[in-house]
Structures are given as structure tokens and as C-alpha cells.
Amino acid sequence: MQDPHQTGHAQGFTGQWQLETGIDMTPNIKGIFAACALALAAGGASAQSESTNRVAVETAWAVFVEKDPTECWGVSSPKQTVNTRDGRVVAVRRGDILLFVSFRPGSGTTGEVSFTGGYPFADGSTVSMDIGGTKFDLFTDGDWAWPASDEDDAKIVAALKRGSEAVLTARSSRGTQTQDTFSLFGFTAAMDEAAKRCNE
């Protein structure tokens, strides 16, 4: 199985803006390049490059581009979030909850999926992604989750293009179960835009 970190998945997200649909999102993306190698070398440190270069909004999805090295990505925040513990709905404090698909032409990366739930995931847990009844597992490390391979990335992106929403279910290190529902309206257009921008 391919270590998802080796494909360079990871971004963070800060700031706020409102999309036409009323979904609050944030315009500053922090691309975390070579996060795994840096974490291994520096005990969890990561290199971050901030970006405010939003180039498009496609309904529930926004597109960003960063240069040197070139990276393009689509990102969305959930339209609905439910947190439960012991079967009861609970109020919990979470950071940014974001679903990304990234393109990095310099490394041959096309359509790389990543997810941050806004909290540290339980050790050894996986995130379940359900897209119209088709389910995928994402592997976790800290606050981030990724598919296991480039092939899984491609399958997930294809399913996201066909679907209307994606439901991601995860478990925090404190035992809270979270369920985040993302709208896929505008996803295909956002992916087309991101891919185009990274091929210019």
C-alpha cells in the first residue's frame, strides 16, 4: 500500500468569505509541501506557504492557484455537520473542516484528495467517505486523511463528479464521531478550472 504522505497530500485553511450559496469558507490556503518528510525530520514541523489567490468559485467549491511551485486546488467546507458521542448529539469545538482536491504538475499529481476534520483523528482510525452509496476509506495521520493510492484518488474524484454530496464519517482522538456532508454542486466545474490553471 502506498503511503499517502508520499504523494504530498495536505493543506490548511484560514480566513472567511461567503459563497453565493451562503456557505462560509475561507480564502487563505496553506499548502503544506513535503509535510511527511519534514515531520519525520523535525518532530511534527511542517513547511507552510500561504495563498490568497482564489481564482474561481463554482457554487459550493472554490479554486485556488499558487506558483513556484505551481499548485492548483479545489476546496469546499461542509453544508452540514453532526457530532455525536455515545449516540447523542454533542457540541464540540472543531477547527476548519475542509475537503480538497489538488493538482501539482511539477510532481505529476493530478486530482489528489485530502480531508481535514478540524481535530486530531483517533490513532489508527480511518475516515469513511460515502458518495451516493459508494464508499471509500481514507487513512488518517493527525488532523489529515488521504486515500491510500493515486488509483484511489482517481476513483474518488470520478465518484465525486457523478455524485450530489459526499458524507465523511470519522472519529476523533476523544471518541467523538463526526459526520460532515459536502455539497458536490460545482465540483466538476471546479476540477476543470483547477486542471486548466495547472496546465497553462
Strand numbers in spatial order across the main sheet: 6-7-8-11-12-15-14-13-16-17-9-10
CATH architecture: Sandwich
What portion of residues belong to β-strands? Answer: over 45%
Mean pLDDT across every amino acid position: 78
The CATH superfamily name is: Invasion associated locus B (IalB) protein
Largest sheet features: 12 strands, antiparallel
- Along the chain, the helix and strand elements come as EEEEHEEEEEEEEEEEHEEH
Shape: globular
| Number of DSSP helical runs | 3
The tally of strands reads 17
Q: Summarize the amount of helix as a percent range.
A: 10-25%
How many domains? The number is 1
Q: Which class of secondary structure composition applies to the elements?
A: alpha+beta
Radius of gyration: 16 Å
Report low-confidence residues grouped into runs of 5 or more.
Answer: 1-50
Distance from N terminus to C terminus (CA atoms, Å) equals 33 Å
CATH topology descriptor: Immunoglobulin-like
Give the CATH level 1 class.
Mainly Beta
